[in-house]
Amino acid sequence: MKRSSIAFVLFFSLLWTGCTPHDTVDKVNPKFFVEELNVWDFTVNDALNALLKALEVDTSDPTVNKILELIEGYRNKEIRGVAISYRTFDPFGNPVLGTGAFFYPRDLKPRGIVEVPPIAHLDRGASAAIYVGKKRFFEEAFPAMLNYIAINPDLLGVLYTQDLPRPFLHDANSGLVAYHMRKAVEEYLLITENYKLGKTSSVLGYSLGGASAMSVAKYYTTNPTGINVDQLFTGGGVYDGLEAFKAYVRTEKSDYLAIPSVIIAMDTFYNLNLDYSKIFANGMENPVNSPDPALGGDGYAYWF
């Protein structure tokens, strides 16, 4: 249910977004774009069928039927998905290669640009760039089905930066990496399609992506990026980390297995020098391959 709600949030948000202009372009020497990792061509109908199957959506539901009716005119639309790498920085300020994916209509007549940061993927094989390589559609790419350019940056911590913990809830780095991804997409489209990306974005985010979407909008509007954010939609995110952890203390329970990664990321990137034996009940070296604490697992060994 939670996964299907992501698609609905994205869909209804996009009904209010505008258009992006197509301008005259010049040659470009890329400062951010490094390499094309994978390309995947498909139709909206292909993506729709895959998404409905993955989310186990009941197509007889009236709300789902309404969405399908609105998408009907786009079903044969051709989309290209591209996974790329680009120059960016880790939270310590070290230069690294970031990755991500973006999608655009092959006719280069998009309704606009929508940037969707990732939800809290828990394993190393889950990210936008990796999914495009596997020709797998994913929720954050949903705006592409409605004829938008969809930009999906990966968090650091995958592919070229897999030795780093993913910087969950790292405000400054989330915004910076997303900006560098957008600039790389801009350069890629200039080089390959002679197409100039517009300067206005809508930013959407759900779950971890909700907090990241706030970070992206904040970065764009507080730095000289030249990017206008016309709309920001978030849902289900952690916007006050301290209050979130206070809630977990009160309830003495959390079903969300990404929380160890949040703690590890903060410990790493803020140099907190935490004693994990006082934080994780079963320790960081717990060998129990189960997400169930009652079986002696704490989720960490199971997922990582």
Question: Notable features of this structure?
Answer:
304 residues; alpha/beta; Rossmann fold; seven-stranded mixed beta sheet; 9 helices; globular
CATH topology of the largest domain: Rossmann fold
Q: How would the global form be characterised?
A: globular
The number of helical runs is: 9
The run of helices and strands is HEHHEEEHEHEHEHHH
User: Uncertain regions: pLDDT < 50 for 5+ in a row?
Assistant: 8-12, 15-22
Instruction: Tell me the number of structural domains.
Output: 2
Strand content: 15-25%
Neighbour order of strands in the largest sheet: 1-2-3-5-4-6-7
Kindly report how far apart the N and C termini lie: 24 Å
Secondary-structure class:
alpha/beta
| CATH-scheme architecture of the largest domain | 3-Layer(aba) Sandwich
Give the rounded overall mean pLDDT.
Answer: 84
Strand tally is 7
Looking at how many chains there are and whether they match, the oligomeric state comes to single chain
Would you kindly provide a written description of the structure presented here, covering whatever features stand out?
With 304 residues, this protein is α/β, with parallel strands linked by helices. The relative contact order is 0.15. Helix 5 packs across helix 6 (208-222). The two termini are 24 Å apart. It has a 7-stranded mixed beta sheet with strand order 1-2-3-5-4-6-7, sandwiched between helices. It has helices spanning 2-14, 44-55, 62-71, 128-133, 171-193, 208-222, 241-251, 259-269, 300-303, and strands at residues 33-43, 78-89, 95-105, 113-115, 149-153, 200-206, 228-235. Mean pLDDT is 84; it is low at 8-12 and 15-22. The protein is globular, with a radius of gyration of 20 Å. The chain has 2 domains: 2-235, Rossmann fold, CATH 3.40.50.1820; 241-303, no CATH class.
